[in-house]
């Protein structure tokens, strides 16, 4: 099924996110760049997975913290996206993260879960958690998104 621009304009955020997860819409280019993909999407929820690798390393030998930040920003923002009506947009206004352990190349898939905490008319807040393949918490955070 090929979706047109007119189809997209009539879709809710949840419908759009489900279409991306099902492969009916192409993923955002940042997802392609990092190899992250949605594995679960529902109202107020977005779960992403990716496998950190050596392309993402910082000078001290671990995966750059910006990768975790991007993954958490994405899953929390997409959780907010699932609450949007047709024609609405959003943007991140604030992002707060707490790093607990480093990601390393070769550690396997990591999973980031974003959940909406509050959805108002003009802003939404969400929380996110990033886990390694063994279920250990790598980082967690919150976001405030403006509804456009």
What does this protein structure show overall?
- With 148 residues, the chain is an alpha+beta fold.
- 26% of the residues lie in helices and 35% in strands.
- The chain contains 4 helices and 6 strands.
- β4 (110-119) and β5 (123-131) form a beta hairpin.
- GO terms for molecular function: fatty acyl-CoA hydrolase activity.
- Residues 61-138 form the Thioesterase domain.
- Belongs to the thioesterase PaaI family.
- This is Aromatic compound degradation protein PaaI.
CATH class: Alpha Beta
Largest sheet: 6 strands, antiparallel
Beta-strand content estimate: 35-45%
Oligomer: single chain
Q: What would you say about this model in short?
A:
By secondary structure, the chain is an alpha+beta fold.
Which terms would index this structure?
Thiol Ester Dehydrase, Chain A; alpha+beta; fatty acyl-CoA hydrolase activity; Thioestr_dom; six-stranded antiparallel sheet; 4 helices; hydrolase; ACOT13; 148 residues
Which helices and strands, and how do they pair?
Layout: H1 5-10, H2 13-21, H3 29-34, E1 37-42, E2 45-50, H4 65-81, E3 90-99, E4 110-119, E5 123-131, E6 137-147
Antiparallel strand pairs: 1-2, 2-4, 3-6, 4-5, 5-6
């Amino acid at each position: 099924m090929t979706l047109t621009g007119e189809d997209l304009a009539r879709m809710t955020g949840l419908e759009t996110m489900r279409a991306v997860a099902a492969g009916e819409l192409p993923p955002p280019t940042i997802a392609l760049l990092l190899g992250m993909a949605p594995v679960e999407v529902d109202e107020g929820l977005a779960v992403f997975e990716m496998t950190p690798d050596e392309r993402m390393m910082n000078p001290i030998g671990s995966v750059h913290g910006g990768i975790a930040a991007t993954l958490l920003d994405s899953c929390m923002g997409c959780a907010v996206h699932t609450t949007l009506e047709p024609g609405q947009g959003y943007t991140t206004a604030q992002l707060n993260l707490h790093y607990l352990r480093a990601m390393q190349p070769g550690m396997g898939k990591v999973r980031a879960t974003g959940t909406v905490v509050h959805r108002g008319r003009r802003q939404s807040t969400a929380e996110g958690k990033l886990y390694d393949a063994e279920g250990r918490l790598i980082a967690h955070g919150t976001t405030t998104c403006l509804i456009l």
